[in-house]
Every structure is written in structure tokens, then in C-alpha cells.
Description:
This protein is 34% helix and 12% strand. It has 15 helices and 12 strands. Helix 1 runs parallel beside helix 15 and helix 6 (162-182) runs antiparallel to helix 15. Strand 3 (106-109), helix 4 and strand 4 form a beta-alpha-beta unit.
Amino acid sequence: MAEPTNTPVPASTPRSTSPAPRQTPIIPNFPNFPSMSSPGSPVLPTKLAPGARPKVLHIGDPVKYNPDTYALFSAQCDIVRPSAEERERPEFIRALKENRWGDFHAIFRPFWGTGGEMGLWDSELVDLLPPTVRVFASAGAGFDWADTKLLGERGIIYCNSGLAAAEAVADFAVAMIISTFRQLAWCINAAQSDDPADFSACHRDATAHARNLRGSVLGVIGLGNIGQQVASRCHHGFGMVIHYYDVVRLPAAVEEPLGGARRHDSLQSLLAAADCVVLCAPATPPGEGDGSGPLIGAKALGWFPEGGRFVNVARGSLVDDEAVADALESGRLSSAALDVHTDEPNVHPRLRELARKGKVMITCHNAGGTVDTHKGFEELSMRNIMAVLAGGKAITPVNMRFLKS
């Protein structure tokens, strides 16, 4: 896994069994801490000495967008924020070993651009956490940088913020889907060329490769929060026919509003049927998966129809960049759009060259990157921690199946 520690917003999300909301899934107005306990919660309220407050380890930048929630958060919890130097892995490990921050109860990472200087949350870090830790709430939808299975086995709930990123990622994905049908990478590059002949050639020839979206089959890999919103926009806004592949069939309440979305039993079946495929599945966290390699590699690309289209707003680690370049050069793919890359911030050199030729749109892991998303990251992370420490249910947990009390 070559994803950087401090990347822009990850774009994968856990699968959802509820329909994607038609409007922005703004963070709900949850009840105020500490009255958030609910029957059946898997975590008991944090037990403290009389007058004591739970301690939260805040890694990364200060809160910027939600002062009112932070005032509530800091009124109920003691917030400890390590310096940037202390967040570097060697010093962070040293601090955990010497219990520098005491027995804290939660880890809070409100931004994706900072707070990840210590790198992968593997056994080297997780095993050093004090036994008091109950919840780790982070910005970002992806969570393949943390061993959520090991955290769960330690009794620590990991909460992501995919709900806050879903709208932004879906909007961006739709723009990329349109790009693959209308050859926007070619059109943009030709218009920027110093040679007027490139403009004329694109004006003349792009028409033969461009298609309307209406009636085309959109294949969605991973019909979770983001996948559902992408599908909804493309079906209702552009008249696309929705097919999907997911580990389980989604309920009728999800499929029917998407025009009766059709589930495929295999990835091969979906790829063969789709005019354009958009990858919205979460990457496999450490400790899970079969180690069989990228989901979209040479074999899977061979299942695409000749001239297929491919969009990735999920994780670079799920795709073999070299194989995508081969498919674009051979014509197996007519166009592609990639927001995420295997070795960020480095983009595969062949893909960069193909982008200059207008064969692929490449962006800089920007899909979820809006101010609105970051507001939601902060709010949702704080609300998750307040809920769990009060003995209530986490709002967006991803590892409950591994939890051991």
C-alpha cells in the first residue's frame, strides 16, 4: 500500500444498506453529550473518578469550522494535542511508551491533511495504546491506513467520516463520468495546445468518439453511500441505466429508486455489461483481504468491452496503473478518469503521457476536497467521540464486527 499518510480526502466508503439521501447528508442534529446513551450500546459509559473528565488525544490541526461543537466537546473532555514534532513516528512511539499523555480515552483526527505524521496505525502503534482508549474518530472516508480489525479486538471503535464526504465525491465522480463519454480530457488539452491544428483536429474528430449518457449502462463497483449518490445523480439526471456489483444485494428500497438497479453476481459480469464503470469500493484495511492484488488489474480490464470507460474515485491501491495504461493504449478502454493513484503524490508516468494526449483525465485526489466536507469531518468526528464516551452508539463505526469488549 503506497498511499501517503497525509493525503487529500479519501474517497471510499463502507457499504450502506439504506438509500442514499437525495439531498446533502449534512451531519444530523444529534443530541448533546453526555445525554447520548442509548439502550443496547456495545460500549459502557467511560468510568472515571468523581469530578474527572475523559481525555482525548487530538492529533493534527486545531478545529477550524465548528466552534460551537468544539466548545461543547472541550467542556466535557480534556483535550491534549501533541506537537507536530511529537506526531512524527519515532517520537510518537516514544511518547506512547512513556505514557506522556496519560491514560486517554479517545483519539481525534479532525483533518486529513495533518495528524497522520506517525504513519500506518499497525500493531506497533496500536499495541502501545493505553487500555482506556474506547474510540478513534478520524476525518476521511477511507480507513486502510489503520488496522481496524486490531483496534476492534482491543475494544476500540474506529469511526470514519465518509458520510461527510459522500456528496462532494459523488459530484466529482459524475464530472469524471461525463468526461469519459464526452472526451473532455482531449477537448481541454487540445484547446490549451500551442498548435492551432490540435484545436481543429479535436473539433473535427472528437465527435466520432463522444456519446450521450442517456441509455448507457453505468456499472458501480461498491453501492455504498457514495456509490448510491453517484448512481442517483446519473440515473435521475442523465437517464443512465444502473448496474452494480457489491458483496451483498442491496434492499429494494435502494434498488428501486435507481430505476431497479441490477446487481451482478460477479465483477466479471458487471464489467462486461457496462458502458462505463465507476469504482466506489473501500480499500481493504490491514489484516483483511486475500492478498490477491488490485481489484482492477490486467485480468479485470480484459473483461471490459472494447472501448469501455473507467473512473476511479476510490483508492489508488485498488487499481493497477500499468494495466490501465496498457488498456488505454490498446483501445480496450476508450477513456478513463482517475482521481486517485497507486503511489501518491507520484502519478504513473505512462498515465501522465496519456493525459497529455487526452486519453485520460487525471486529478490530484481532489474528489472529496471541499470546505463543506472538512466542516463535516470535524463535526462528525467530535460527535462520534462524544457519543461513545457517553455509552451511546457510534454514528459511523466501521469495525463493530471485530469489537471485543
